[in-house]
Amino acid sequence: MVIFYLMAIIFVAGILCIALEDVLKINKAAVSVGMCILLWGLVITHATGVFETNPPEYLDNYIKGFPELLSMPVAQRAMIYVEKTLVESLGDVSTTLFFVLASMAIIEVLDSHGSFRVITNSIRTRKKRSLVWLVAGITFMLSALLGNLATVIVMVAVLRKILPERADRLIFSCLVILSANAGGAWSPIGDVTTLILWTGGNLSAGHQIVHLFVPAFVMMALPAAIIGLLSFRKGEEFAELTAGDASMLPAYITPKFQTSLLSVGLFFLAMIPVFQTTISLPPYMGALLGLVVLWMMTDIKASGSTDPRASELKVSRLFSHLDLSTVFFFLGILMSVNALKTVGVLTALSNGLSSAFGNVSSIAFVLGICSSFLDNVALVAATIGMYPIQQAGEFMMNSSFWTFLAYCAVTGGSILIIGSASGVTVMGLEKIEFGYYFKKITPLAILGYLAGSGVYLLLFA
Fold first, then answer.
1. CA 172 to CA 219: how far, in whole Å?
2. Where are the alpha helices (DSSP H) in 113-165?
3. What pLDDT, in 10s, does the model give residues 274-311?
4. Beta bridge partners of 396
5. DSSP assignment letter at 344
6. How many helices (H) and strands (E) does the chain have?
7. Are 343 and 4 in contact (CB under 8 A)?
């Protein structure tokens, strides 16, 4: 039917507009939500025709669960199915959105109270090669807890405080992009794509950590080693290393309190997979629990202060600082993919990919390359829709395909600076030119991507 091609064209056009956000000057959230509305509008207005001529494979199972649908006209049956699917899709997507919101709020609380200054103050070395490994290692581990997007924001702020020379800071900022995406690949909460795979039941937290830590480490370590060797001479030191001027905070926010907040925040973020595994607490509930504890800690401290700035640091005030456009972007992307899934477009696409690439590892590898210029959230969400989880086989939970896809989709975004949200963020913060990254970092990112892929396939494929 024409609607299948029209929906596919709208989706592809939307993804391209998102990739060209800086050129078109249109926020990707607006494109994402607009695309979602168009796709679901087509599903609703063409529901009868779709289900008469090319019903999705799983529609029969749905009808069997509601025998009363068989006595209804096709048009009514189709509309009931679409309405229920729309509501269910929104419910599934909302769990991801609330996790993102809670995580963003936790990071905002820590940042506004100066807790990340603890990291800045812990960096003492003046040797450039040593700092390469220190920055790469901190970013790699922090990304697994805070997520790669939040981590690059924190690390760029840290670098600005300790590196006075812009030329040096550019190299380290690019290293942060590589390390953050590598660190985000082995953690279920390290990137939105891994979060989607985890909450969708494609991967378990323990399986992902065990199977992807080493490949992700290789992806980080190989470029870091080359940057250290080629960019800096042995024994070369920075002329000056300063912590920078700290922003003024109320007197009750002491270094000890900042350390306590950071410890509590990182603890609850790290415990999210543990809570989910041991007591089946949903990830968004675990994130909200961490936010509640920080909320209580900061409010209690602020209540005993007469400083007028204390009221500005209350969590209820900090909510206005959250980037809601990011939440709307995820909403639009995930709901758009569900629209394609509802009418069976993704099933047809999966058959085409399987015909073009006989090996599922090849599919994951190619999708990783595509994530260097297309949004990896959309790619992974679409892939999940194309390949439903099986009880056994290549697409069962914790299969090599889903595991390798988690690695490829996240680390592949490092190949180009526009290939990941973390890359685009650092690009904007430090005004890094596309050509600079392409010339100096892209070859290293490709080398790391290939090395990490090779390690994974050698160990687990």
1. 16
2. 117-122, 128-146, 148-162
3. 888 788 888 889 889 999 999 999 988 888 787 888 88
4. 390
5. T
6. 23, 0
7. yes
